[in-house]
Amino acid sequence: MVYDPEKYREKREKVLGIRKRGVGFGTIAMVVSLLIIAGLSVVTIPQAISYMATRNLDDAIFKLESETKWPAEAIAGITAIKGVKNTVKDEHTTRLVVTYDRRLVNLSKITAKFDQHNLNVTLLNQVNHRQHQNTMKKEEEELEAS
Amino acid sequence: MTQVNHLIEIQGLKKIYQSGGTKVDAIKQMEFFIDDEEFIAIMGQSGSGKSTLLSIMGALNHPTQGKVLVDSLDLYSLSGEQRADFRSEYIGFIFQSFQLIPYLTVLENVKLPMAVTGQKKKIKNQMALEVIDRVGLGAKAYRLPDQLSGGEQERVAVARAIVNKPPIILADEPTGNLDSKTAEEIMLLLQSLNKDGHTVIVVTHNQDIKAYATRSINVQDGECFA
After folding, report:
1. CB-CB: which of A1, A8, A21 is closest to B71?
2. Interface A-B: count of C-beta contacts within 8 A
């Protein structure tokens, strides 16, 4: 029979590597690697972003001694200070947590604001913001467990 | 890719074996072609170079000089991996001594060449059972080679050679270990495979084999004569 080059084209292309047989090991290895990298990224990237965003933040915890409720204008004044990121009253209405960037503002500037409003305030604690968050989370979990 | 006019083209082939200081010209000079779906008997006495020629055509043995073109593929300019793919895609080998694995069943022996094809187990089993049936051993698929006669073992070797549906079957003295009746059965089987579209190339010293072939090539002292 006369040789017809088209008859074995598929086999020829497989030998020459033009036509691949199934999914190659390289492709599988690449897909698995990408999945691992993506999985690790999902876990580590938000943690890294969170770390970068909070590494310079501290929490100052104040207790109001002179009154039973924080005056709204005093809190607004503290929030307005450049470098103060947040003010949160906890479940005890006389306690106030001020989150601030230690590079931009120091504690004396915040306490000066309380003096301006003639408030008798005690500084209960000053901790790293992330450390404070972790402590609160632990306490919540312990409460739930008990 | 080289432009060719035949399925197999042997061009200026030369093979020298060197053992210590001794050189043996196994193939001095060969030039011939084989067309698609031919049944070729390569005839020659022992030591004439016919088995060397078969191994070179099967991409198993580098020639010292010359080219082997199969389906326009220059076999010895391909990489080792491509040559392995070539053997898997194009060639079915049948050896004189059967070369069956004694501790594997007929079915497992036949499935061996399919190990690298990436097909599913179920399809492999189905294809292997089909060819075992084709060579007349359907009832003995789960027997071990030593539970079979010589002729049956040769049939298993034939089934193993055709299971990947190769276009070319290379047989080295396929009837060498068989009695004349069994040899005839094997040659008729090879003839029917040729009629089904396989190109069959049989290397033999047995002149009776010529009768089954569509053409013969005589090999003598490392040279060929059509």
Report:
1. A8
2. 44
